[in-house]
Amino acid sequence: MRSLRAVKLFVAAVALGALVAPAFADPRDVSGQLERIRDKHEIPALAAAAVVEGEIVAIGATGHRCVDDPTPVTIQDKWHLGSCTKSMTASVAAMLVEDGKLAWNTSIADVLKEIPMNDAWRTVTVEDLLVHRGGAPHDPPRHLWKVACDQEGTPTEQRLEFVRGILGEEPEKPPGTKWIYSDSGYAIVGAMMERVTGKSWEDLLRQRLFEPLGMSSAGFGPPATPGKVDQPWGHLGDDAPFKAVPPGPKADNPPAIGPAATVHCSIADFARYTAWHVAGDRGSAWLLDPDSFQKLHRPAEGQTYGMGWCNLRRRWAGGTALMHNGENTMFYAVMWLGPGADTAFVAAANADGYDAIDACDDAIRELINEF
Fold first, then answer.
1. What is the pTM of this model?
2. What pLDDT digit, counting tens, does each position of 15-43 carry?
3. Which is the most buried residue in 112, 178, 225, 364, by most CB within 10 A?
């Protein structure tokens, strides 16, 4: 169920050649265009949007919320974003750095003082964890994952218990020596953010990111209500026929790794989020200083990954494109940003596997070619 397959998804993606949210003009509905792509790849549903110069210029959604139900998706429906959550966590961490509550070189031991930890963890910093060089494991120990999936206690309590277990083990590699894509590392940062603010990670994202950006649809976990087909359901399987997964605790990653992979929102709010990062990269955003956007976006020395962003050279992007994707084995989402061209493109599907990946890539490719 975890979003750990995202490393492989990066490889697939490489083939794709005032404190208020900005107001958007009426975008063009591209649902018909997306239907052709959805039908070709035989996935349950597909949504996508394009942003040019800060405005959503095209948006669409097509297909069904659940393969076992005729209810169609709408443009207002919510999609699980998987590991696209990581850059959101990093963005709010940057706000806390600007507030003086954290620093990029704040260590785990500086914040989680009472937790017994292997000595190798003590000097690992916020920055180390956000760029995946802190030694946090790619796969958490099975016994810790089982406890996380039991979901006992509040999300904050679940995270702290999970982090306590991670820190009690040796890092997978000596910190600073190797890039290891890790949901656990982002869980540790989330726990540090909670400790220095006294607020849950979920409340921090709502108050510092979603509300200021006008992302009213954003939330956590499966988009749909248990027992209802009021939003898209996730689906298991690499290709058709897909198996619908009823919404509930087992229909997503556990809250323990929420800071890595549990946000959902509408395709329009997903686009709003990317528009904010494009503006920030161009030096004209709000909520964060331009230097903080550069810190988030630019890769650490010797790698192509920043803080929740992969950097790839693309002609259509006007130079460096920022991208990330995410999945929870039941949904897939991807975002491509071209700051140099002042554009951004997002897509999402309520299925995972290579058919869903290809459908989202095809949708974004068509939008890039058009806009």
1. 0.94
2. 444 334 444 568 999 999 999 999 999 99
3. 364
